[in-house]
Each structure stands twice: as C-alpha cells, then as structure tokens.
Design a protein that fits this description.
With 166 residues, this protein is α+β, with helices and mostly antiparallel strands. It has a 3-stranded antiparallel sheet with strand order 1-2-3. Strands 4-6-5 form a 3-stranded antiparallel sheet. The chain is elongated and about 65 Å long. It is built from 6 helices and 6 strands; from the N terminus they run βββαααβααββα. Helix 4 crosses helix 5. Strand 5 and strand 6 form a beta hairpin.
C-alpha cells in the first residue's frame, strides 16, 4: 500500500502508522524513504482519505490493532500468573525451543538450564525458584535438579490444570 502513495522505488514503508493514532493532534505521518534515509511528510487529510478508500489498508490497520490488543491481553494475563505457573509454562516453552523430546517418559534439560538461569529468566530470586522446584518435586513432576529432569506425563497434566486453553 505505500506504493500507492509514491513511486515504489522511493518508499520503504510507513513508520508507526498504526501506533500513532494515540496522539490526538498528529498532523502528519512519517514515511521512510530509501533515498538517502530522508523522510517524506504526508498530509494527515490525504492519509485519512487514502485509508477511507483503500480496503487493503483498512484491513492492514485492523489486523495491526487486533495483534496489538492480543499482545497487551497476553502480557496482562501472564503478569497475573503465580511464579509456580510461570515456571511450568517457561519450562515447557524452553523444552519446545530447545527441541527436547517429549516422546520419552522424561524431559532432560541441558545442564545450563539451572536454578540461576531460571531465576534470571523469570526475574525471581534463586530461593524462590528453589522453592517452586521443591514443590514440583513433591508433586513428582521434578525428578532431578541437576540436570533438571521432568516427568512428561505429569508436566502435561499440570499444564492442563493450570492453563485450561493448553
């Protein structure tokens, strides 16, 4: 859609178009130009007319807004989780990111995934992480701390209990 505004060879993209609507008195939108890194100014009324007449641009803005609201909602819900829930979720995500096997009865993490690593990752103290790991051990989800070893079936069961949409 920026190509409809100016020549395709001179436009890189619209900068923060969907994020600038929060500023009430915005008079112009900045458009990045490829030529010598300069910016082109586009009149606000022209941009509104373009948005009103271009269904593709309307859909783009709508999709960006939906994504932005979904991210806000996701961050809010995540911030409300207890440390225990965050630890469960992040251990699962780390296992997925590292492509660890879920086929076996256990998930064995590399040695660098330690209490210190998890404390930094979750922005919590080592003592709090140790307490949560102790709770996982009591529930027979955690088999070993060095290396961290989890029982796959029980981890999934606990994830389903804590996160109904899992």
């Amino acid at each position: 859609m920026p190509q409809k505004i100016m020549k395709p060879i001179t436009i890189f993209g619209i900068e923060n178009l969907t994020e600038t609507f929060q500023e009430e008195n915005l008079m112009e939108y900045r458009v990045k130009g490829l030529e010598k890194g300069t910016f082109y100014k586009i009149n606000k009324d022209y941009m509104h007319l373009l948005i009103a007449t271009d269904p593709e641009l309307q859909q783009f803005i709508q999709n960006q807004l939906i994504n932005h609201l979904a991210n806000i909602s996701s961050r809010y819900h995540y911030s409300q989780y207890a440390l225990y829930q965050k630890l469960l979720l992040e251990l699962y995500r780390i296992a997925c990111d590292l492509d660890l096997s879920f086929e076996n009865k256990t998930i064995v993490f590399p040695t660098y995934i330690s209490i210190s690593f998890l404390a930094g990752y979750l922005r919590a103290g080592r003592n709090r992480i140790s307490e949560q790991l102790e709770e996982l051990a009591q529930e027979e989800i955690l088999l070993s701390r060095k290396p961290i070893t989890l029982v796959t079936r029980k981890l999934f069961q606990k994830l389903q209990e804590n996160f109904s949409s899992f």
